[in-house]
Amino acid sequence: MNNLRKMAGLIFCLAVVLVLTGQVSQAQKIAARPPEQIKLGSGQTLEDVAEKYFADPKIADEIRAYNKLSPGSQPEAGSIIRIPGVEREKAITTLDVAAQAVMQAKAGGAEEFAPEKYKAATDRLTKAKAARDKSDYTRCCALADETWALARLARKESLKLRPKKNRFAVSVDSAGTTRIEVLEGDGVKVTAGKKSTTVKHGQAVKVTAGKPPEKIRKLLIAPAPVLPNNESILVTASIYFSWKPVEGAARYVLLISRDPQGMKPVRQLTTPKPSYLLRSSLPDGVYYWFLRTVDSQGLVGRVSPHRRFTLRAATDGGLSVEAVDMQNPKEGR
């Protein structure tokens, strides 16, 4: 009982400390804000005031505007000076968000591919900063909001119009036929036999030496994996893989890898059916599997998202699975 009382006392003391700490923290936060007004001291300039409360003497002109003083003027000692507070904090925050949106639009190529909207955004940003300098914080917030909206539109338009980086695969079979498959981007130009053709995203073409490119074909979609489920834990050495069939697929390629990028393959298997029973000798561990289609012309389709499984056939003692003849079942099996 005494121990319980001591523990309760400690918990109460801790709660009091936390409450007091929170109150002190809140008080410090409030104290960190500048006062609503000050009395200018002897020899004190507005630059000194700006440095003290905003750590930037350049804000002195903003304080002048807030007090309707002429630029560069220095009030006499004893003058009451109003200091911008919460309304300025809100304006500065809104302005920072708008400026960041403009930077993101520029990084997205808006200056080149959406010049009108980008210029409109930068013009609004300039006006918003001018409103801040004049201590017109309400107008500053309104202009900053317009800047943000225009910058977002500029970035969206730019990402739609700017050229995308191409990712394509080139392979050559035993007969010397070259296959070009475009997996991402705006496309590539293929020239052979004095004839050119553009292969776009999701398309492929075959080229035989000395002949013009063959008819462009659409890449088959990636098969949708079914089994094993993602994050499965398998305790059998035999692994049953299955997936949904893809129309036009002549065969499927199943890749098992040690990494989610497929750069550390341990098995690559081909089958004409949408399933495969792997009687493996793989060591226990984590694996990732991927699927691709191959059409009748030998063009390889898109790759499926990877799935992960953990193999524990050895560490969990293994499990034997056999088919049972239900017409003549044997006792004890």
Explain what the structure shows:
By secondary structure, the protein is α+β, with helices and mostly antiparallel strands. Among the domains are: 86-161; 167-218, no CATH class; 225-311, Immunoglobulin-like (Sandwich). The protein contains seven helices and 16 strands. The protein has helices spanning 2-32, 46-54, 60-66, 86-107, 110-113, 115-133, 137-161, and strands at residues 37-39, 80-82, 167-172, 178-184, 188-192, 195-199, 203-207, 217-218, 225-227, 232-234, 238-243, 249-257, 265-271, 275-279, 285-295, 307-311. The strands form five sheets. A five-stranded mixed beta sheet has the order 10-16-15-12-13, with no helix packed on it. Strands 3-4-7-8 form a four-stranded antiparallel beta sheet, with no helix packed on it. A hairpin with a 2-residue loop joins β5 (188-192) and β6 (195-199). The longest helix is centred in the first third of the chain and has 31 residues, at 2-32.
Give a quick rundown of the structure.
This protein has 333 residues and is an alpha+beta fold. The protein has seven helices and 16 strands.
Number of contiguous helices = 7
Cα distance, first to last residue?
A: 60 Å
The CATH topology label of the domain at 225-311 is: Immunoglobulin-like
Q: What name goes with the CATH superfamily of the domain at 225-311? A: Immunoglobulins
Strand content: 25-35%
Q: Which CATH architecture of the domain at 225-311 would you pick?
A: Sandwich
Based on CA inertia axes, which overall geometry fits? elongated
Order of SSEs, N→C? HEHHEHHHHEEEEEEEEEEEEEE
The major sheet is characterized as: 5 strands, mixed
Number of strands: 16
Structural class: alpha+beta
Helix content: 25-40%
Q: Order of strands across the widest beta sheet?
A: 10-16-15-12-13
Question: On the 0-100 scale, what is the average pLDDT?
Answer: 80
Task: Kindly provide the name of the CATH class of the domain at 225-311.
Answer: Mainly Beta
